[in-house]
Structure formats: C-alpha cells, structure tokens
Write a structure and sequence with these properties.
Among the domains are: 94 residues, no CATH class; 123 residues, no CATH class. It is 15% helix and 38% strand. The chain has a 14-stranded mixed sheet with strand order 1-3-7-9-11-12-14-16-18-20-21-22-23-24. Helix 4 crosses helix 5. It is elongated, with a radius of gyration of 25 Å. 25% of the residues are buried. It comes from Stylosanthes scabra. Pfam families: LRR_At1g61320_AtMIF1. This is At1g61320/AtMIF1 LRR domain-containing protein.
Length: 353
C-alpha cells in the first residue's frame, strides 16, 4: 500500500499487529509533511502464554528516516524516537514514561524552528543541554518545556529565540535569559524561581500563571519588564486569600494586565483582597472571574469595590497608583440539578474608567 500524495497523517491510539507496521506505512508516504503518532499500541497475537490483556503494550520505538518533505512531527507515548529529516521545522515529543530513560535523536534536523518536550524527568536539563541545543539548531525560535527536570540554575543564550515557555519544571530556582529577540515568555508552576532578562526586546510580553502574585513580582528582573507582563492568578476555591499574601511594597510596579479567578464566600473578603492586589502592582487592566453558587450578589459586590478603588487616591490613600483603564467582569452561575448534572450560565461585561 502506497500513499504517494498524502501530506497529513495522524495516528492516535491505534492498535497495530507489530511495531514495524507504523514505519512501513510512513515509509510509503514520500510527500508526508505533517505526522502525528500519539499513544499507539501493539497487540502481540503470537504470545499465547500470557493473558490477552497483557499482550497489548505501547509502541516502544519509532524511526523516521528519508522523509525529505517532513516539516511537523508530534510523537506521544513512545520512549525511543529517531528523526532524520533535514527540513523538519516543528517537533513535539512526550514520552510514555517520564522516569524511564528516553532516547530522542533529531540532531540532523538542523532547520528546526519549534521544539516542545513534555514529561522528561530522566534527563537533567541544564546549561550544557541549552548550549548544545542552540548550537545544533541555530534557527530555533520557539522552545517549550513542560514537566521537565531542570538544574537549579540555568542560563539560556540565544539570538534567534522568540518564544520561551517553562511549565511545572522541577528543581528550578534561577533562570538567566539572554535573548534579545525574545517576544513571549510564559511561566507556569507553583514554585516561583528568580527570572532575570539580562537582554530583552522592548516588545517582550511576560505571562505568569500563579497563585502568588507577590513572589512573581519580586522575582522578575529588571522591574521594567513587568510593564509588559500579563499575570493569571487562579485561587483554588474555596480557599480564602490571606491578609498580606499579595502585598509587595509601598510603590507597586506597573503591570500590563491581571486576571483573577477565585470564589470568596464572605463579602468581607473583597475589600482586603483588592487592597492587597493594588498594593502589589498597578495593572492597566483587570479581568475578574467569579463563581457564584446561587445568585449575582458576589458579582455586584466586587463591581462596587472596584468602583471605590477607581474613584481615586482619597479612598485608597495612595497617590502612586494610576487609574485602571479597563475592568472585565465574568460571572459563572452554577445551578446543581442533580449529583451528576451541573448547568452553567455565563455573564460577562467590561467597564472603562
């Protein structure tokens, strides 16, 4: 069987008779450009000594060679992957086991532009790993590392890198980034390392997904970077915000945008929560989401308190805080119909001051 004109091929949770079938199929697609192999398995029908359930196992290895047109590869659930394609531009890799030794070889893909590696705990990503990565792939523009094991201190040096994402990377305490063309930096994780942008573009936008605004603001250097930062703070309801948990200093830095999601069950929490927020940073815009079990009382209360803060320094007694230009309110009503069915109603509007 040959697919001489096929350019897109996606294999997701497919059960094969043996591993060679995948490579045989791909080898007969000479014009393939986009390839995805996700969590495929093999059924060993020849092994009659073991139960049928035990005869099914994940594909262990995948070799992609001689595919001159291949540009995009997404491999998930395979522990050993070899890619030999000089025109490959985008590679996404997630092994089947984050603790078992993995083998990922794509050294010949020197034209690589985007790399995403997830769930890699078996290798320690440190300065040597980054140095070799950017020397082997001089055109790399986007790097995303998710749930990877890293050194406590890392240095990232690249003149081509434009997008950098670090999500839930363990052990990381300090990141020093030398990337003058970097346009987007995203950090996700409970632990907040010290992040320094020693060389950066004026167009750099920083996004942080955290429960602690205080640590994020304190650990970003230089402070001027925060002017282009968008912060996403998700409180796990019904946890109540602690007094002073968000407070940083008497002169809060300017931040581009802040998005909040929490569910206070006591209206007395609104004012101290917003007070701590504004003493931590001066956002140009705020997106505020609420989850209401019964009605829109919480929504009205927050709107009221935000109006108080926007009326000016006499209420807040702080002349260093500029006016917030935009508030976006989102309310989620939740009506419990039964133990297994929940109906949600969504309301949203924006206000300019």
């Amino acid at each position: 069987m040959k697919f001489s004109s096929l350019k897109w091929l996606s294999l997701s949770r497919v059960l094969f008779t043996h591993e060679g079938v995948i490579e045989h199929l791909i080898a007969h697609c000479p014009l393939i450009e986009h390839l995805a192999v996700r969590h495929c398995s093999v059924y060993n029908h020849l092994s009659s000594e073991v139960p049928r359930v035990c005869r099914i196992y994940r594909v262990k290895s995948l070799f992609l060679c001689g595919l001159q047109k291949l540009k995009h590869v997404d491999v998930q659930g395979v522990q050993e992957v070899h890619v030999d394609s000089p025109n490959l531009e985008n590679l996404i890799y997630r092994p089947s086991n984050d603790s078992a030794p993995l083998k990922l070889n794509f050294d010949s893909c020197t034209n690589l532009r985007c790399l995403c590696i997830c769930l890699s705990k078996s290798i320690d990503i440190g300065d040597k790993w980054f140095l070799e990565l950017f020397s082997k792939f001089p055109f790399l523009e986007s790097l995303k590392l998710d749930n990877c094991s890293m050194s406590q201190s890392i240095h990232i040096l690249s003149t081509q890198l434009k997008v950098l994402e670090l999500s839930h990377c363990s052990n990381l305490k300090e990141a020093n980034i030398y990337a003058q063309n970097l346009l987007s930096f995203i950090y996700r994780g409970i632990d907040q390392p010290a992040i320094s942008f020693l060389r950066s573009s004026k167009q750099l936008e920083v996004k942080g997904y955290h429960c602690s605004l205080r640590e994020f603001v304190q650990n970003i250097k230089p402070e001027k970077i925060l002017a282009s930062a968008s912060l996403f703070i998700y409180q796990s309801f019904p946890i109540e915000p602690k007094q002073g948990a968000l407070r940083v200093s008497s002169i809060p830095p300017s931040i581009k945008a802040v998005e909040l999601l929490f569910t206070p069950e006591n209206e007395a929490l609104y004012f101290p929560y917003m007070s701590d927020l504004f003493s931590s940073c001066c956002p140009k815009s705020i997106s505020f989401r609420l989850c209401s079990v019964a009605d829109s009382k919480e929504f009205i209360e927050v709107h009221h308190y935000l109006q108080i803060f926007c009326m000016g320094p006499p209420i807040y007694n702080c002349t260093s805080i500029p006016a917030v230009s935009v508030f976006v309110f989102t309310l989620f009503h939740r009506f419990v119909l039964s133990n297994s069915v929940i109906l949600q109603k969504h309301n949203s509007f924006s206000t300019r001051y």
